[in-house]
Fold these 2 entries.
Entry 1:
Amino acid sequence: MSVDLIFKIAAVGILIAVINQVLKQSGREEYSFLTSLAGLVLVLFWVVPYINQLFDSIKTLFAL
């Protein structure tokens, strides 16, 4: 896992937090929820290949 991925996740988290605050202050809580969900889905798309690699490593480690 590279450090770039951690920085990208942190940047998305900061950006989503700012957008959520702006949307909540303007009274658009439903859009705030949708932006949080979109940020979560984006980060999951980045992390899923690493989780898959982890499971493959565990499989080969225990020879399943």
Note: The longest helix spans residues 29-62.
Entry 2:
Amino acid sequence: MQFSVDEQSRILEMAWEDRTPFEAIEHQFGLNEQAVIKLMRKSLKLSSFKLWRERASGRKTKHLLLRSSSVSRGYCPTQYKQR
């Protein structure tokens, strides 16, 4: 799939977010977890990719089936601050 620069930027941002599950990226952009990993590997420096992979692998919130029912949204309440 081809994505615009803005779409690719948003996918990378969603992948970095702890509370955004891979399923949300797949729903919005049609990329499953493996495709997101491939995109991240291609788009990031090796050291950044390794940091992201370690971080994403340890997060239950990155998978809908593993996340707690107390996580009811894909972002932290302080993520989008009012100006």
Note: The helical segments are 5-16, 22-29, 33-43, 46-57.
